[in-house]
Design a protein that fits this description.
The protein is mainly α. 56% of the residues lie in helices and 0% in strands. Helix 9 crosses helix 10 and helix 12 packs across helix 13.
């Protein structure tokens, strides 16, 4: 029951191709420079998948040593490490969700659940949700809502605010986002956030394309 993407299933070759087509932020575009050469060096080190790569780049010290062994620049490996780490976003604190009732937060905290990762195993199956309802005396509607919010927060850069926007659209689960096109998601988000109902920032179709693309690598397990 992985809350995060299973990076062991993403081969180094697949990861390279994903980077080539990704909508990288400006400071990460360095990853495209000499990418075929540097990834060939990675393969020579018998690194087969992204989880293995994450382990050899786990700390700044390891990055430095790996650079010395492979000849890949430290700056390149540092950005590569950041990109890989972004696939395992920090769990969102339940106290930050304005759409979750304070009474719900309190009941969840009383049984040791304070963030979305802790909540995930308690909402993933019908049986686990029923158990949670018995423990907390929450309604079906409230449990489904927190289940959807938890699911959405597995996506990169989806915080408590944007997850709240998404559950007010038909793209309220990762599965629904996987089957969507970016223009539809964009229009739905704009409509849900009309008059800055949830946030004042701006998003574009490219941002929603990133969201849809990112959702493809996540396993759908919530029943």
């Amino acid at each position: 029951m992985p809350y995060y993407k299973d990076l062991s299933k993403l081969s180094i070759e697949q990861y390279k191709e994903k980077l080539k087509s990704a909508n990288l932020i400006p400071s990460w575009k360095i990853l495209l420079e000499n990418i075929d050469l540097w990834f060939k060096y990675l393969e020579k080190q018998k690194i087969n998948n992204v989880e293995e790569l994450a382990q050899v780049l786990k700390t700044k010290t390891k990055v430095q040593k790996f650079s010395e062994v492979t000849g890949i620049p430290v700056d390149y490996l540092t950005i590569l490490r950041r990109e890989i780490n972004s696939h395992k976003p920090s769990p969102r604190k339940l106290k930050d969700f304005t759409t979750i009732k304070d009474s719900t937060k309190q009941k969840l905290e009383e049984i040791g659940i304070k963030n979305t990762e802790q909540l995930y195993t308690n909402i993933i199956t019908i049986e686990s949700r029923n158990t949670l309802k018995i423990k907390t005396n929450l309604s079906d509607e409230e449990v489904i809502k927190i289940a959807k919010l938890t699911d959405l927060c597995r996506l990169r850069y989806v915080n408590h605010t944007f997850a709240t926007v998404l559950i007010h659209t038909k793209f309220d689960t990762i599965e629904n986002i996987q089957n969507a096109n970016s223009q539809e998601v964009y229009e739905a988000v704009i409509e849900a956030n009309k008059d800055n109902r949830f946030y004042k920032g701006k998003i574009g179709v490219k941002d929603m394309k990133f969201l849809v693309d990112d959702s493809q690598d996540l396993v759908i397990e919530i029943e």
